[in-house]
Design a protein that fits this description.
single chain, 272 residues, mainly alpha, Glycerol uptake facilitator protein, 10 helices, Aquaporin-like, Formate/nitrite transporter family protein
Length: 272
C-alpha cells in the first residue's frame, strides 16, 4: 500500500518559512571556501542566463513585447541552474533574514555570507564574461550580439542613481518571490515552472539585478574596448555605480520579502 503521508502539494507558507530558516542556518555556517566556490557557480549560472538574453534580444526584427518577454524567459536559465543545481546567490540570500529574526544565526554570520557570496558571484560572472568574449559570441548574427551587449551595458551605466535603486528593489522582490516558490517546491518541475513568471517579469520590465549586471556591464565594456559600438560608450564610473546601487536596492527588496513572510508565517516552534 502506498504511503499516504507522501504529498505532492507544495509546502505551505508556514512550512516554507521554516525551511527558509533551516537553509539560512546552513548557509550561515558554511565554510568560507565552499561558500565562495558555490557563489562562483551562481555568478556563472546567472551569467549564462544573461548571455542567453543577449543572444535572443539581438534580433531587432522582433516586436518590442516579444523581445522583452522572450529575453526574460531566456534569462530564467540562470535561476533554474542556481535552484536546481545548488549554488549561493547573493540576491536570494536576502531571505536569510528569516533565520536572523528568529535568532538562529547572528548578524555577523549574515554579513559574512553576503560579503563572500557577493564577491564569489562577481568572480564567477567575470569568468563567464571572459569566456563569452573569447568564444567570439559577439560576432553572431552579423555582430548584432556584440552590439546588444554594448547597448545593454551603456543603458544600464547611464541610469540615474534613484532609478537604479528603485529598479533594484523591484527586481529583488520578484527574485526572492521566485526563490520562495523554489523553497516550497517538491520537484525540479515545480521549481522551474514556479520561477518562470517572476523572473521573466523582472527582466522584461528592465529591473536591475546586481549579479546579472556583473555580466551585462563588464561584457559590454569589454566588447566596447574591442571596438564594438561608439568608443567610450560605457563609463567605468557608471558601471561601478550601477552595481553598487543595484546591490543596495536588491538588499532592500529582498529583506522586505523575507521580513514580510517571517512576520506573517513564522510558527511558535520557530521563534527563539
Amino acid at each position: 500500500m502506498a504511503d499516504q503521508s507522501i504529498s505532492v502539494d507544495a509546502l505551505s507558507p508556514a512550512q516554507t518559512e521554516a525551511k527558509a530558516e533551516t537553509l539560512g542556518i546552513s548557509k550561515g555556517s558554511m565554510p568560507a571556501g565552499r561558500m565562495f566556490v558555490a557563489a562562483m557557480l551562481a555568478g556563472a549560472f546567472i551569467g549564462f542566463g544573461a548571455m542567453f538574453f543577449c543572444l535572443f534580444t539581438s534580433d531587432s526584427s522582433l516586436p518590442f513585447a516579444v523581445q522583452r518577454a522572450g529575453g526574460g524567459a531566456c534569462f530564467c536559465l540562470g535561476l533554474v541552474l542556481v535552484l536546481c543545481c545548488g549554488a549561493e546567490l547573493f540576491t536570494g540570500n536576502s531571505l536569510m533574514v528569516c533565520s536572523l529574526f528568529s535568532k538562529k544565526i547572528g548578524a555577523g554570520q549574515l554579513a559574512r555570507n553576503w560579503a563572500i557570496v557577493w564577491l564569489g558571484n562577481l568572480a564567477g560572472s567575470l569568468v563567464v564574461v571572459f569566456l563569452v568574449c573569447a568564444s567570439q559570441m559577439g560576432a553572431m548574427n552579423g555582430g548584432a550580439v556584440g552590439t546588444t551587449m554594448v547597448n545593454v551595458a551603456s543603458s544600464k551605466a547611464s541610469l540615474a542613481p534613484a532609478t537604479i535603486f528603485a529598479k533594484g528593489i523591484l527586481c529583488n522582490v520578484l527574485v526572492c518571490l521566485a526563490v520562495w516558490i523554489g523553497f516550497s517546491a517538491r520537484s525540479v518541475v515545480d521549481k522551474v515552472l514556479g520561477i518562470f513568471l517572476p523572473i521573466t517579469a523582472f527582466v522584461a520590465c528592465g529591473f536591475e539585478h546586481c549579479v546579472a549586471n556583473m555580466f551585462f556591464l563588464p561584457s559590454g565594456l569589454l566588447m566596447n574596448m574591442l571596438g564594438v559600438g561608439n568608443p567610450g560608450a560605457i563609463a567605468l564610473e557608471g558601471l561601478v555605480a550601477n552595481i553598487v546601487i543595484a546591490t543596495l536596492g536588491n538588499i532592500v527588496g529582498g529583506v522586505a520579502v523575507g521580513t514580510a513572510y517571517w512576520f506573517a508565517y513564522r510558527t511558535r516552534e520557530n521563534r527563539a
